[in-house]
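User: Can you write out an input/output pair for a complex, sequences first and structure second?

Assistant: Here is one pair. Inputs:
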Amino acid sequence: MTITEKILANHTGKKEVHPGELINARVDLILANDITAPIAINEFKKAGGRKVFDKERIALIPDHFAPNKDIASAEQCKILREFSKEQELKLYFEVGRMGIEHALLPEQGIVLPGDLVIGADSHTCTYGGLGAFSTGVGSTDVAAAMITGESWFKVPESMKFICRGKLKKWVGGKDLILHTIGDIGVDGALYRSMEFTGDVIERLPMHGRLTICNMAIEAGGKSGIIAPDNITENYIKNRAGRPYKFYSSDKDAKYMEVKEYDCSKIEPLVACPHLPSNVRPATELFEITIDQVVIGSCTNGRIEDLREAALVLKSRKVHPYVRTIVIPATQDVYRQALEEGLIEIFLNAEASISTPTCGPCLGGYMGVLAKGERAIATTNRNFVGRMGHPESEVYLSNPAVAAASAVLGRIGVPEELGL
Amino acid sequence: MILKGRVWKFGDNINTDLIIPARYLNTTDPKELARHIMEDVKPYFYKNIMPGDIIVAGKNFGCGSSREHAPIAIKASGIQAVIAVSFARIFYRNAFNIGLPIFESSGIWEGINEGDDVEIHTDKGIIKDLTKKTEFMASPIPPFMEELISSGGLMEWVKNKLKVTN
């Protein structure tokens, strides 16, 4: 069996499961945010739900339009707060403790290797980086699971990606996943689990693994997963508050497709409008001028991402006609960035620094684009209108490329700054 | 059951940000969401929908965010069904959960024009283009999804299941 099949079998009480099989599985954690939870809570109540199945296993995180961007958003966040009080939920995160959900839950040791997690947010697939099976669902699925503690799944077929070689300077998890999506397309892994292996992945630090699995959904994947190892153990050992389990794929596990990449050749990549699969090397895009840079999000808002951006921005200034918005993904990331002097570097570079929020990634607030404007962002989607006006454009990159572009006023690479 | 309606055509990879832009997600009111359906790809689409119209789209319809607001907005706009070459998985799941009829049909996109009248024969899985007098097959709905539909959606299915186990 694959790692995915083993986790699903374990949560179903079966020895084995097979792709295509329909199962009802126990979930370890359910999450929802200020956009998706209000519908879930309404469905929960409409169905006559009185008590959630386990008040320690439901995470409600107001991160999308919070701190409240307007009155309507305030009303939505209030629904989460009141439900959390009423149900005495242990995992409600108020603004001030809140972080972007997919950065916060691994950081706090709330999601663990071997877990089965569903979330009413498509980037729930992030936790595959820890060796968990996690997948995005809708609000009604969350409502049902809050009552039963279970959810139904079709066991997915698995695709294996073998990443070999030595990564070039300034190339990381973001470039690896953009390369993969560029290769297979935005529906190249539709309904499937994407398993990432190979010596590149074995050496890749946890933040890069989380970035890769975060964007599995942009290839249509049901989940992304990386077998846990020493890097996982080191990341999790001081965070975990409950037992966890490492799974790995058997040697004779069946994959419906295997892809091998020589990653030594991969350059820093940029996904051009309006699909994450529209990928080109950053070095081919120097003519693209930009109006805004966003460094943050569930994809690239962790401390390592901010360190990478700070390396590029140190002792430099953001281009006069570019606004650069840095968003630490969680309060702990913010604090650490402050302690390490990164915040000072960003301030000196004349970047603005925001409290944790998804805000601009989905065109909510904190950096919405006007008609005809262009942004380069470390986020995950560049769809039409994603960051604002339907005639604005978003280019996706890693933090180093985004930071170099902030200085240059156009898409650029750190090498151009002598780095 | 037979669903009959006029066709609106859309291309491949119609994502949930196009179906309902995130800037409107500070509400969950279906009527308010419906007012903005597809507005970045087809301005004023909502005003031109007649109740019972049917969307025909290409590959990977509903990709992107997990927002259930997308099928909710479609349903509340008066669109009675969506036919696509393929659906993104979260949208597929959400549509069944909230009771929006959807059908996968591989050859349909090339064969049907916007404005054609179509009939979907849900039990036989046949889609008839009444304007062109042609027929297409829809992929069969998996048995579990049929069970969800006949229960009246996921929450009813859960309620029934709880009654049985109690």
